[in-house]
Known about the structure:
The complex is a heterodimer of chains A (313) and B (351).
Chain A: H1 2-27, H2 44-54, H3 60-72, H4 88-123, H5 128-142, H6 145-159, H7 175-201, H8 204-211, H9 216-233, H10 236-242, H11 248-253, H12 262-268, H13 272-300, H14 302-309
Chain B: E1 6-19, E2 22-35, E3 39-43, H1 50-55, E4 65-74, E5 77-78, H2 85-89, E6 96-99, H3 113-124, H4 129-142, H5 148-152, H6 161-174, E7 179-183, H7 191-208, E8 211-216, H8 219-225, E9 228-233, E10 236-242, H9 243-248, H10 253-260, E11 310-313, E12 316-318, H11 334-350
Parallel strand pairs in B: 3-8, 3-9, 6-7, 7-8
Antiparallel strand pairs in B: 1-2, 1-4, 4-5, 9-10, 10-12, 11-12
Helix pairs in contact in B: 3-4, 3-6, 4-6, 6-7
Amino acid sequence: MKYYVTRLFRSFLTLMIVITIVFLLMRMMPIEGYFGSGFDKLDAGQIEAKLKNLGLLDPLPVQLKNFYISLLKGDLGQSITYRPKVDNTKILGDKLITSLRFGVASLTLSLIVGLSLGILMARHKGKFWDKFGTCYVVGANAVPAVIYYLLIQVFFTDIFKLPLLFDKSVPKSWILPILCLSLVTTAYYAMWIRRYMVDELNKDYVRLARAKGLKSKEIMIRHVMRNAFVPMAQYLPASILYTVAGSIYVESLFSIPGTGGLLVTVIQRQDNTLVQALVLLYSSIGIVGLMLGDILMSAFDPRIKLSHEGGSR
Amino acid sequence: MTNNEKVLSVDNLVIKFNLRGQELTAIRGASLELYKGESLAIVGESGSGKSVFTKSFMGLLDANGRIESGSIIYKDNDLAKYKTEDDWIKIRGKEIAMVFQDPMTSLNPLKTVGKQVQESIELHQNLQGEEAKKLAVEILNDVGISEPERRYKQYPHEFSGGMRQRVVIAIAVACNPNILICDEPTTALDVTIQAQILQLLKNLQKKYQLTIIYITHDLGVVANVADRIAVMYAGDIIELGLSEEVFFDPKHPYTWALLSSLPQLGIKGEELYSIKGTPPNLFKEIKGDAFAPRNPHALKIDFEKRPPYFEVTPTHKARTWLLDPRAPKVEPPLSIQKMREMEVKRGERLE
Lengths: 313, 351
């Protein structure tokens, strides 16, 4: 328990530091980012009036204080160029949820398929399933994703009569984007779980389990799988959360209104407040993801808690 | 201590391994009989085939190894003919259980020790749930773990090396086997713990009527626990006899050499005895006595024909031409005679 509390506190501290740094960095950006397209036509007086209005002429500590207060209220400011005068939370809200839905769906699929494939590969090491899986893993990684995204879009819409583009109201139109998003991650999960399981299978406790009369299937289920899953548990929450960043290829290919590529777009369009909101969001997700990963791992592996409490080792 | 009921009888066992396209003969026609309730120690240097020999009783050979010929008779079944996992499941744990060398890695780090002991019980003793747990706690107590109720819920990393080895032993005993194979049970432990573990095994042997095979290269362990000793060299048992017979009246030149290299027998100021040369290459076929090239007393025939077993007493036999009536008389080295005196003194002290 103590471990969790310490871990939580540290994550919060890191988050505060990151937020502050992001805020200070944004203050170093050229001020054009707060004006949109009409900047050239404004005179000095208008510029100053606008900056003053935004609170940007206050001394830094005051700015920081105001920033924290608005953060607490859940206010991330208004967009300037991307969708002028619209609250950033509102712009992001829908997009984030769309991307997250796709992300979670595709990750669930990759976990189920990838882990099963990897386990199958480890159980039949060197035989058909292992070779089949290896082909898939190598293929998925070696072929540039864009190529098979296109192939999938072209052929699957034809063969299975699936819609070409995403439409929120058509459930069928979810299938292809999810499939595309899952292909590579499935390969990764299969590869890692196979690797960790093969490592575990060579350990002494597996030999002991065999010697006491467990069947290989039981050894896999009762002993090996959980051990092999521990190193993967650490990265799982982060990868789920990171899906809110969306996929630039898949989302543009199926015209999904998600966050894919949004950060690049708003940087190009110099929408300072939106950039700030996105950077804040992504960095907090990173921190929270890692924290959840550590907590999940310690839930799986009893050794981790103790090493922090200075246990008997 | 020994009676005449055979529990396991191995005859002319040959085990081969495929290694990098070559064939290695790890066990070259070894034979052994195991009697109910005895402690047999198999001694020999690294690579002599001790572990492979006993692993073959449980079907635990690595995938590239196979039993080429010979038989392993247990309860009227020939284990050498067992092929599938389903066959071996009937033997593993239930009939023959094993204690491995390294307790630090032999336990699953993510399961409580109690559950790991309980798993054996549920597999082999027809008990489930609470009843199995009760027995698991009892067995943990039997192997000398204090506060077994509390320890039941702990994980392996909360145990010291010696304590973990007790848990490994508990797991083996919980299977309720007839035969317990202890593969270097004390090698990874420090000396004070070694003695405790050996004492524990002796006690368990009485309580659970176990027949124990010790595999070791530590002659100190052997002297402590074994009723009989089998000396292994290059995949064959070259001498077999009661503990006293092998220690005090060894017949095979390899046994002489092995005993002479005990540091306790060295003379102060003189270089410690070591056996010259290296063990034979098991990839090649061995002609004659495998020890002949390293044997200062080797006869001509040692290089040509494999010696049969010569019986010294009904319980003691050795594979060496020196025991042939026609062989020249060769006295064992002085250190062996010294050994005799040492052991006598030691015995008196223990009394």
